[in-house]
Amino acid sequence: MKSISNKLASMLLVAGATLGTAAHAVQDLPGGPAVKQLNLAPPVTRIAEEQHFLHWMMLIICTVIFIAVFAVMFYSIWKHRKSKGAKAANFHESVTVEVIWTIVPFIIVILMALPATKVLVAQKDTTNADLTVKATGYQWKWGYDYLSGEGEGLSFISTLDVAQRQMSNSGDVSQAPNDYLFKVDNPLVVPVNKKVRVITTANDVIHSFMVPSFGIKQDAIPGFVRDTWFRAEKIGDYYGQCAELCGKEHAYMPIHVKVLSAEDYSKWVEGEKKKADAKKDDPSKVWTLTDLVARGEKVYGANCAACHQANGKGAGPIKALDGSPVVLGPTADMMHAVLEGRANGAMPSWKQLSDTDLAAVVTFAKNHWSNKTGTMVQPAEFVAARGGKFPEGGGAAAPAAATPAPAAAPASAGATAAASANGPFQIFFETGKSDLGPEAQAEAKRAADYWNAHKDGKIALSGFVDSTGSADVNAELAKKRAQAVAKVLTDNGVAADRIELRKPETVTAGAGDDRQARRVDVVAAQ
Asked: What is the DSSP letter of 416?
């Protein structure tokens, strides 16, 4: 009965696979994987051709040895079987035989090692490159910087096509194109018949840069520099993937290399440099809120939507931006997040973006979906942040048509930055303490007055802690601080059932100032 069930299950699987194939016929991707591919990818570099030769040469040698050894063994078993009256021979070692079966394998190994060593040495010879590109692995995308050669100075991020990521998230891949999960917004472009050196490194965890058609695979390790090279001999599009398990988005980290003729490559370089020049913004320029949000929407779609979703709701462990305490809280917190990353690299650093793009995407997040804060960040603030000077406190930014507000003066321990009339309210504590000082008491009372005047909706108290020291001690301290703020609110007439105490969030103190980790935010619960 069990065998019959297994056979029926197998038949159903075959039938399902057949129907699935009929519903959506998958075709080969030129320069990428092929349907029912059994051999290595078609080579387009000399190194890849040599690898093919080594593969088949060694496979043939091993097959011949296998057939020869087992043929002799089976012949001996058959010829000298007991049923034919064969008698076991009684003999001792033969020096001649032992010398032969030692020397012959040694010669075979040497003959196999010589061409393999030649190819291996050639693979590592990255000298005299016509073009040098640095490939930096991020979770989960690639950054390309043209370091020398034609195109020097160009730099961009290559990310999986948003539409294909959305298709994967939907689970409906019945209309998936042949380049499904291989299409990117910015491919790596190189000239044909030119030696391209690829320097690999990583920003967070170990990645691996692999393009099978080129015969290259080089790990990208944080804090280390590795290199490889290729010389593509055919014009076309060639694909690869990160070949090192680098996290949950590992499958969404494709590599697309576009090989152009020398003439077309020169035109591409010229066009990209014009685009780069056009994108160069004066960081001292004062932007309007409308223009920043419009630009930020494009930056978000290209870099953030793949994880946080177009609706800002996040997915799984990816936190939502819509209604996020970090987005609704002080500007400095979000600036730290985009410049430094979060959660041990689960959210990568975006410091490779321009100051204008960073200001735009932060402004967009703070003024999109339900996040109608009115807060605006100017590029000049990110210029200062890169130097370690972040805005103090929170509250709304300057109005859209106004010039950037001057940086707030450093506050003393226990003081609170001024919040806008309708929040968010930030209450700051002294280092290591959970009782409110006079100014913090005053700020908490202002929050109570506001929420007493707005009796609809709940209130969230979000504590923050620094990532250093004891996590348990810091979390308990943050809890006590939130409870202290809640007591002030209830003592001033706010109903206790309206108050939610949320789990404290970890922030990174900026430029040696842990003030942002000594606060409790009072915001509307989402």
From this structure: -
Q: What is the mean pLDDT of the chain?
A: 81
Q: Which of 186-195, 246-255, 313-322, 460-469 has the highest mean pLDDT?
A: 186-195
Q: Which residues contact 471 (CB under 8 A, 6 or more apart)?
A: 465
CA angle 516–518–521, rounded 5-degree value: 75
Cis peptide before 287 (omega within 30 of 0): no
How do the residues of the chain divide into helix, strand and coil, expressed in percent and rounded to 5?
40, 20, 40
Q: Which of 18-22, 48-52, 310-314, 355-359 has the highest mean pLDDT?
A: 48-52
**Residue 308 token pair:** 């946080």
DSSP single-letter state for residue 85: T
**Total residue length of the chain:** 526
Sign of CA dihedral 309, 312, 313, 314: positive
* Contact present, 462 and 520 (Cβ < 8 Å): yes
Tokens in use for 113?
């090692």
On whether the CB atoms of residues 245 and 220 are closer than 8 A, the answer is no
Under a CB-based contact definition with an 8 Å cutoff, are residues 147 and 133 in contact?
Answer: yes
Query: Cα separation of 403 and 113, whole Å?
Result: 70
Could you give the angle at which helices 471-491 and 438-453 cross, rounded to 10 degrees? 60
Percent of the chain with pLDDT over 90: 34
Q: Average pLDDT for residues 206-217, to the nearest whole number? A: 96
What is the C-alpha to C-alpha distance for residues 313 and 320, in angstroms, rounded to an integer?
4
Q: Assign residue 407 a region (left: φ > 0; alpha: ψ between -120 and 50; beta: otherwise).
A: beta
Residue 380 has φ and ψ, to the nearest 5°, of: -60, -30
The Cα–Cα gap between 327 and 338 comes to: 11
Q: Give one word for 314, left, alpha or beta, with left for phi > 0 and alpha for psi -120 to 50.
A: left
Query: Phi, psi at residue 379, to the nearest 5°?
Result: -55, -35
The Cα 352–Cα 302 span in angstroms is 14
Q: Which residue type is seen at 258?
A: K
Q: What is the pLDDT of residues 358-395, one digit of tens each?
A: 988 999 999 999 888 888 898 888 888 888 888 875 43
Reduced to 3 states, what is the DSSP secondary structure of residue 282? coil
Q: Which of these, 526, 446, 432, lies nearest to 485 by C-alpha position?
A: 446
How many CB atoms lie under 10 A from the CB of residue 243?
18
| pLDDT band at residue 467 under the 50/70/90 scheme | low
How much is the pTM? 0.56
Tokens 């005047």, located at residue: 453
User: What six digits make up the tokens of 150?
Assistant: 């034609």
Q: What is the DSSP letter of 250?
A: G
DSSP annotation of 498 reads G
